[in-house]
Amino acid sequence: MSQPQENIGAARLASGVRQVLPGNRFLYLNGFFSVIILLFILLPLLRMVTQPSLDDLLVTISDPEVRASLWLSIYTAGSAAAIAFLFGTPLAYLLARHDFFGKKLVESVIDLPIVIPHPVVGIAILSLAGRNHWLGKVMASFGLSILGSVTGIIAVMTFVGLPFYVNAAKAGFEGVPVRLERVARSLGANPAAVFFRVTAPLTWRHMLCGIILCAARAVSEFGAVVIVAYHPMIAPVLMFERFTAYGLKYSQPVAVWLILACLGLFLLLRLVARPLQRYS
User: Are 43 and 61 within one domain?
Assistant: First the structure.
């Protein structure tokens, strides 16, 4: 189609839209549906946050068991994010810079933990690290145990959070012009020096965003953790136990503190991501 014909077609489409939704009605329609979505998200959370009294929240956070579970959630989520950073960065760089046979399959495998039912993840990890599997026997020889341990919690959280880090880092590496790396190589830098002196400094915000996303996803995990390690209890497991044993009154304050922790992570994510949007 020629350029004049494209302009005519665009003009006709715009005219049709104006006839269907004259003036600012289209904007108002978008705003209406946006408000519905925001209310759908906010109303249950606002009800959750405002129902417990301040005294209930203070009593809950003064409970050593609650503080221990919240700290364990943050510690294990941070450990999972650190593992994802250490082992996921080379994979993200490889996917961003090289095309190879089976690349789409590899990318699909990376995204698979996002859609797998979480109890399946827990069962799969237990079957791999159990005493009847060679990997479980090797781990046992080194004194490592997955079932009912902090190691198991970190393994589960790393599994579910890794795709978020890899995808964020991969997007950052893809945004760095290849010509910059080639110029550095032409000046005598080896591939490792190019990565650490050129590519990584230009991508650190994407990697940090990936770390935060991975930690945020990990701290909210429940379905797989409750299978692998019911004890020691992370915050979601403690909240579930109090709900089943005592009801909403004793589980809601724990949920509020967990929501506040997750909100803090995503506020940090937005603050980190702002320069990315500003200079993109």
Answer: no
